[in-house]
Amino acid sequence: MEFEKIKQDILGKEYSLSIAFVSEKKSREINKKYRNIDKPTNVLSFALYKDVGEIVLCKSVMKKELKKFGRTLPQLVGFLVIHGMLHLKGMEHGKKMEKAEEKYLSRTKF
C-alpha cells in the first residue's frame, strides 16, 4: 500500500499511526481545546508518544475546501494525511514542507 510506504519514509517503520474521521462539531471541539481556535478544521495531528500519533480529519470541512485546494476529495484526503504526517515528523508550514508534500503526493495514484 502506497500510504504505508510513505508513512514509513516519513515517520519510520515502527511508528504507529491512526487516522480518525470526525464530525464538524467534534473537529471544532478538538481545535478549540488544543489550539484555542473556535472553528472546525480539515486536519489535526497529535503526537501521542515517541512513535505513536494520530491524524484527525473532518470530511465535511474538506468538502467545503475542494475549490480552494483545487483537488478532488480523495486527492485532498491524501494530501492532508501526508500533511499531517509531516507535522508529526516536526515540520512547520513553509516551502520545505510544501516541497515534501508534493514529493510524497507524487508517489500516490492521486
From TrEMBL:
<feature type="binding site">
    <location>
        <position position="87"/>
    </location>
    <ligand>
        <name>Zn(2+)</name>
    </ligand>
</feature>
<dbReference type="InterPro" id="IPR002036">
    <property type="entry name" value="YbeY"/>
</dbReference>
<dbReference type="GO" id="GO:0004222">
    <property type="term" value="F:metalloendopeptidase activity"/>
</dbReference>
<keyword id="KW-0540">Nuclease</keyword>
<dbReference type="GO" id="GO:0005737">
    <property type="term" value="C:cytoplasm"/>
</dbReference>
<dbReference type="Pfam" id="PF02130">
    <property type="entry name" value="YbeY"/>
</dbReference>
<keyword id="KW-0255">Endonuclease</keyword>
<feature type="binding site">
    <location>
        <position position="83"/>
    </location>
    <ligand>
        <name>Zn(2+)</name>
    </ligand>
</feature>
<keyword id="KW-0690">Ribosome biogenesis</keyword>
<keyword id="KW-0963">Cytoplasm</keyword>
<dbReference type="InterPro" id="IPR023091">
    <property type="entry name" value="MetalPrtase_cat_dom_sf_prd"/>
</dbReference>
<keyword id="KW-0862">Zinc</keyword>
<keyword id="KW-0479">Metal-binding</keyword>
<dbReference type="GO" id="GO:0004521">
    <property type="term" value="F:RNA endonuclease activity"/>
</dbReference>
<comment type="function">
    <text>Single strand-specific metallo-endoribonuclease involved in late-stage 70S ribosome quality control and in maturation of the 3' terminus of the 16S rRNA.</text>
</comment>
<feature type="binding site">
    <location>
        <position position="93"/>
    </location>
    <ligand>
        <name>Zn(2+)</name>
    </ligand>
</feature>
<comment type="similarity">
    <text>Belongs to the endoribonuclease YbeY family.</text>
</comment>
<keyword id="KW-0698">rRNA processing</keyword>
<dbReference type="GO" id="GO:0006364">
    <property type="term" value="P:rRNA processing"/>
</dbReference>
<keyword id="KW-0378">Hydrolase</keyword>
<dbReference type="GO" id="GO:0008270">
    <property type="term" value="F:zinc ion binding"/>
</dbReference>
<protein>
    <recommendedName>
        <fullName>Endoribonuclease YbeY</fullName>
        <ecNumber>3.1.-.-</ecNumber>
    </recommendedName>
</protein>
